[in-house]
Amino acid sequence: MSIPLILGALSFFIAVMWGRPLIALLHRYGIGKKIRADGPGHHLDKTGTPTMGGWLFVLPILFITGTLNIANLIGFNIIGASTLLLFFCLGTFAGLGTYDDLRSLTRNSEQQGGITAKVKSLVQFVLATVIALVLYYGPPAIDSVGVPGIPSLVNVGWLTVPVAIFLIVGFSNAVNLADGLDSLAGSTTTVAFVAYGIIAFLQGYTYISIFCFIVVGSLFAFLWFNAHPAQLFMGDTGSLALGATLALVALMTRQWLILPVIGFIFVAEALSTIIQVVSAKFTRRFWGRDVRPFRLAPIHHHFEALGWSEMQVKERFWIVSVLCGMLGVSLALV
Fold first, then answer.
1. Which residues contact 153 (CB under 8 A, 6 or more apart)?
2. How far is Cα of residue 17 from the mean position of the Cα atoms in its chain?
């Protein structure tokens, strides 16, 4: 376990060193967050805070994992199996998020900004399909899943492909929805990667454990600057990349059945948004008026509307994520 932890610490120091220069660069080019008017009113104070800060942790992760994979190719067996698929997933989804973040800067008061939901979904689907096919056809071919209570892996064959596509796209969007409060998405994804890093190490997937703790170290550096009041936001650059990569880690460890447990906060964020939208459309059509179960969606805004402070929501969601991470690790070991 020493190598994953050492590399995690290294990734923190590399990432934290360029936090200030990155913030200054984002300020210089006016890459600041535009807050939606339909959210909590006090969030308008965050307008102009640098966004696209996901590169603070994405670049160190790509640098360290890329270096380790090159070392593997030339004969230095540091991490064992390749993490290039994780490298590809993180990098491509970060690229998609960056394009969306840059496009959103040009929006006006009548537009939501960014690329359209259809285009973004299409690109996510294409990227997820490529990753799922590589995952299934290998090497090593991943076509099985761990089921709590069953000692051996259960073969699911070609079903791995549609499951992988669904999880990668779904969690990419779910983490994006959770990125609405200072340090919320960063802290909860950190817990999820710690949980899967432990699972991977205990089950012999040391190379995945190393990757997870590199992510954790870099996320700690991001949280250094994203703590309330945030000096920068990760934007779609970070949230899309983290969600997709978390799902891929779950698939590569063959422990994707417990991903909704470990990533419970993200599932709740996504479901609350879906329920809110479907309920409004259904009741408007059949009753002639909107009936919405939540005051605001995603669900972290609902609790803010109930009177919780931003930090209360973040801390309580983080506590829930830690408990879910502990439960998920225990289920993986049953």
1. 144, 145, 146, 254
2. 22
User: How many angstroms separate the Cα of 216 from the Cα of each of 10, 45, 80, 201, 219?
Assistant: 11, 29, 20, 15, 5
Q: pTM to 2 decimals?
A: 0.94
Look at residue 74 in the predicted model and tell me its pLDDT: 86
CA dist list (Å): 147 to 127, 151, 193: 27, 8, 20
| Look-up of token digits 């803010």 | 304
**CA–CA separation, 165 vs 321, rounded Å?**
24
Instruction: Give the C-alpha separation, 44 to 33, whole Å.
Output: 10
3-class SS at 154? strand
- Which of left, alpha, beta for 114 (phi over 0: left; psi -120 to 50: alpha)? left
Cβ 48 vs Cβ 250: under 8 Å: no
Tokens of 23: 């913030």
CA–CA dist 270, 136 (Å, integer): 27
Q: Which two tokens stand for residue 193?
A: 């990667």
Compute the CA torsion angle 120, 65, 179, 189 (nearest 10 deg).
130
* pLDDT tens per residue across span 157-190: 999 999 999 999 999 999 999 998 999 999 999 9
Name the token pair of 126: 């294409």
| Statement: residue 214 has pLDDT above 90 | yes
pLDDT at 110: 40
Cβ 32 vs Cβ 106: under 8 Å: no
Q: Which residue has the tokens 């913030």?
A: 23
Secondary structure (3-state) at 145: strand
Neighbours of 222 (CB within 10 A): 31
In tens, the pLDDT along 63-109 reads: 999 999 999 888 787 787 889 999 999 999 999 999 999 988 875 53
Residue 155, H or E segment: strand 154-155
Q: Which residues of 37-47 are buried (b: 16+ CB within 10 A; e: fewer)?
A: eebbeebeebe
Neighbours of 311 (CB within 10 A): 14
